Amino acid sequence: MSTQEKPNAPNTVLEVKNLHKHFGGVKAVNGIDFVVKEGDVAVLIGPNGSGKTTAINLLSGIYTPTDGEIVFAGGNIAGLKPSDITKKGIARTFQNIRLFPELTVLENVMIGSHTKGSVGIIGTLVGRRKGLMEDRTAANKALEALRFVGIERHQEQAKNLPYGQQRLVEIARALVSEPKLLLLDEPAAGMNAEETVKLVKLIKKLNQMGLTILLIEHDMSLVAEVATRAYVMDFGRKISEGDIQKVLNDPIVIQAYLGEEIEYDYA
Ligand SMILES: Nc1ncnc2c1ncn2[C@@H]1O[C@H](COP(=O)(O)OP(=O)(O)OP(=O)(O)O)[C@@H](O)[C@H]1O
What we know:
GO terms for molecular function: ATP binding. The chain is built from eleven helices and ten strands. The protein has helices at 52-59, 82-88, 105-114, 121-127, 129-133, 136-149, 163-175, 193-208, 220-226, 244-248, 251-256, and strands at residues 12-23, 26-37, 41-45, 67-72, 75-76, 90-92, 181-185, 212-216, 229-234, 237-242.
């Protein structure tokens, strides 16, 4: 324990140090630092193009950082393959839903369990579809996760579910890998008001059950409901941090959002 840490302070789950991702001349992520503590619902906010999704792509191994460290589960995971990062305990959902549209909802969620095994997703789909369906443990886990997120139509092809429900299927798929940290990239995008209310309840329930969450979200009403800590990005840099009320009243943040609507209807 460091001398500054209080005896009962929550453990650090994730520490991002001086993280960079440059695409040619574009510094999409330009030296950010942040910490996610156990039990947090941390949120990354910022105007369009500020680097939030790139940051999540770095954390989940989709991109290799240009520089910097991502410390998770006792080591630097920067540059590891996505499947290895999932095995270490980080699962995610995507801004643009990435389900297999022709597979059933159940099959899509079962794929999440198989990120723990040795067979890759493509191998699973192409060579082992039948075997996969015989994997009772994975099926039971998937059904449990689907029940948890409130999806009943598990034998339906994923493409036939409304968009908002497809997002919940992605969350179920992430949950079956039993993550320590769940990354949600704009989980409310495309959801109607009723679906968003259910999503807020789900995020709170997951968090109460002990899951640490880091999300990107433009819907500030949702953020205000769930976030324990907010980090604000602009032009690849962190420009503010703290509780959500504080950061939304921060003149630097207001300036960064000028010309964009901050969707925020809380008093
Ligand atoms: N693969 C890529 N190649 C080149 N430039 C990229 C790539 N991915 C992102 N960028 C650029 O990096 C910057 C940050 O983009 P990013 O998608 O991370 O922002 P964001 O904050 O998630 O935006 P939004 O809120 O609109 O989703 C943008 O200028 C974007 O055009």
